[in-house]
Amino acid sequence: MIKTERGTTQIQGKGLWVEAEFSATAGAMKKYLCDKYGMTEEKAKARVMELAERGLKSEEELEKEVYKRMCELFDNVKDMLSGDVKEESDEKVQ
To answer: What is the chain's pLDDT, residue by residue, as a tens digit (94 residues)?
Structure first.
């Protein structure tokens, strides 16, 4: 059994069953992205892989990523306020 609630995950059971549940969860996430956001299967699969890779990062790596994204966000806000708006792709769901 894999149970995640608000960032805390519990894993119990035999290895093969847990692995099967993990695989099923990845497939369900791909379907959710297709259904909810209209993503193609290819884009949804890439997003699931991106999320899995994020889950494997250390806390230090995640902190750096968050800091980088915050800086990008502040730069975008600064550009909008100064009238220097840039076109951005909306392909990613954040």
So the answer is: 999 999 899 999 999 999 999 999 999 999 999 999 999 999 999 999 999 999 999 999 999 999 999 999 999 999 999 887 665 555 555 5
Contact (CB, 8 A) for 67 and 45: no
Which secondary structure element, helix H or strand E, spans residue 9, and what is its range?
A: strand 8-11
Q: Cα separation of 39 and 33, whole Å?
A: 6
- Among all chains, which residue has been given the structure tokens 């899995």? 52
What is the C-alpha to C-alpha distance for residues 60 and 75, in angstroms, rounded to an integer?
A: 23
Name the pTM for this structure.
Answer: 0.69
